Amino acid sequence: MSRRRQRGFLKPKNLGKTFGRFLKYISDYKLQLIIVGVAILSSSGANIVGVYLLKPIINEYIVPFIGSKNPDLTGFIRMILLLGIIYLTGILGTYTYSRLMLNISTGTLKRLRVDMFTHMEKLPVKFFDTHTHGELMSRFTNDIDALREMISNGIPNIFNSTITVVGVFIMMLILSPLLTILVVFMLVLMLFTVRKIGGRSAMYFMKQQEALGKVNGYIEEMIEGQKVVKVFNREEKIKDGFEELNETLRAASTSAHTFAGILMPIMGNLSYVQYAITAAAGAIMAVNGIIDIGTIGSFLQYTRSFSHPITQISQQMNSILNALAGLERIFEILDQEPEEDAGSAELVYAQKDRDGMITEASEPTGMWAWKIKNGDGTVSYIELKGDVRLENVTFGYVENKTVLKGVSLYAKPGQKIAFVGSTGAGKTTVTNLINRFYDVPDGKIKYDGIDINQIKKSDLRRSMAMVLQDTHLFTGTVMDNIRYGRLDATDQECIQAAKLANAHSFIMHLPEGYNTLIHADGSNLSQGQRQLLAIARAAVANPPVLILDEATSSIDTRTEALIQKGMDKLMEGRTVFVIAHRLSTVRNADAIMVIENGEIIERGNHDDLMALKGRYYQLYTGMLELA
Length: 627
Fold this sequence. Notes:
With 627 residues, the protein is α+β, with helices and mostly antiparallel strands.
């Protein structure tokens, strides 16, 4: 995603709109923000007033004391105490606004994270198909961290520095307009230096970040691919590649930190030069009676606190723009249209009376029904059986690229329908549409005679279970991951589901059995074991419709034979859609659909298709490679 950059820093596309939305988020802390404003004023004001008090202290007490043997220190002590009270007030103000801004930042970021996560849960599958995991995670990490720094430090420092610069400049003008002109001239020279050196530093920091990303990506890729590297003896080759990337990172880092490192010493030395020139000019003016010693003392102290806040404002503005650019990326997610769901039909517990009339039940009865709200305000119930029909469905993930072309098929309750065909033919797309991960623009899909667009998505998906080729396990115990299929399932039901999937045996050999902790998406399990847990998860859900997308692809043929009986039990009385490349797993299907280029070119059971000696026959006998 393109972003405008200014000297290596990200800038938001629409600064005003983004900052306006940001203000709405922190508007919940109006009272605290008012207190913060008062605290910043007291902090800056204390420093400004404290420096100005040096003038009367020097002129009225210190200078008269010179040569005096028994000076009266009463007034002097009173002024020192007053100065101490002023600076203590400033310290209290600094602590107050720092503490409150920390509270405001954590509260605001908590709300942003909750809003973003909650909204992401409402987004359609298409959004996640078109955005990488790393891209989405960076919103929760990098962008949130930049925003935390902006709220807790950047914004208060900007206001504090601005008030200090304005106040100090006014006081310098009051004390000596002539010396103020000299200070401003030196300040322009210092800002020019910051602009030149800071710009080069930022450019190299940007190159450093790009090089660091390449180095980290290379390291991650090579660590994951170590087996392949060793098999082909490519150790020296990848070392050369790493050294090249690492040298680029070293060069960029050296340049970036060189310019960043010399900036502050140069600024410090220039400030000393400015101080010396101002002191010399002030001394000449004092000798000629143009200015008094107290004024020079206060003015010189103001010069020390004038240039630093300006430099800080320049640095903070870049980080604030960078943070607002990250906030804009967060708002882009919040602005994504949530998944549409105009369905009204609900899935409810049901029961039949003596006359066969279906009524709603308040507790599980082993029977489900679709609750349909009629136009006249009445409700009707249709028993959930698992009758799924596609009628002339045409679909494409992107415009002008059709994946399915006029597909029609039906699956009667309890039937096992298999899809076979080449990779990319459209097999998985059919199951994605049945789940309403994507909506059908042309054609209809009916579930128990109801258009699935009329069924609430959550209820539709609750009536189905899927076992995907790429199994995802969550951090938690084995039992927790099986129970994910149905959260109210008992331990015994989960164990029964594991036995059905033939997972019980390997689970009992784990260190803690069903209480064994799974982490890192099941990295401590084999791919086949992970898939067995996914099958058990589907079994405990006990849905009327089951979708198996290469469910046994990572299971060896011996294990597959062992679980086939269990799978047959799992599929009994259920409508099952099976996607398989291993054709031996679909021989007992009631109907096999051969899909090529988004069209069903053959359909029938195994014997019918073998007798036809068409595409399925070629696939099954190995005359045609499936992929």
